[in-house]
């Protein structure tokens, strides 16, 4: 992962905020923080181009957008 994360507005916040589950309040707060972030687009691009982070399916709010785990695609059709 690149050094852009060191400049992210979310540094210092509880990471659980970016995994809000059913909490609309947490979701809105996380997205608001993302929209103040100087590296928001790098964060979103990372999420859009990666299926995993640290071996786990990528999910949560990244770059102001919510991501759900993606299914792996088969390389050959059935």
UniProtKB/TrEMBL annotation:
The keyword Cell cycle applies. Its main location: cytoplasm. GO terms for cellular component: cytoplasm. GO terms for biological process: cell division; cell redox homeostasis; negative regulation of DNA-templated transcription. Its cofactor is [4Fe-4S] cluster. GO terms for molecular function: 4 iron, 4 sulfur cluster binding; DNA binding; metal ion binding; protein-disulfide reductase [NAD(P)H] activity. InterPro entries: 4FE4S_WBL (IPR034768), Whib (IPR003482). Keywords: 4Fe-4S, Cell cycle, Cell division, Disulfide bond, DNA-binding, Iron, Iron-sulfur, Metal-binding, Transcription, Transcription regulation. Residues 9-72 form the 4Fe-4S Wbl-type domain. The keyword Nucleotidyltransferase does not apply. It is found in: Cytoplasm. Belongs to the WhiB family. This is Cell division transcription factor WhmD. It comes from Bifidobacterium longum subsp. longum.
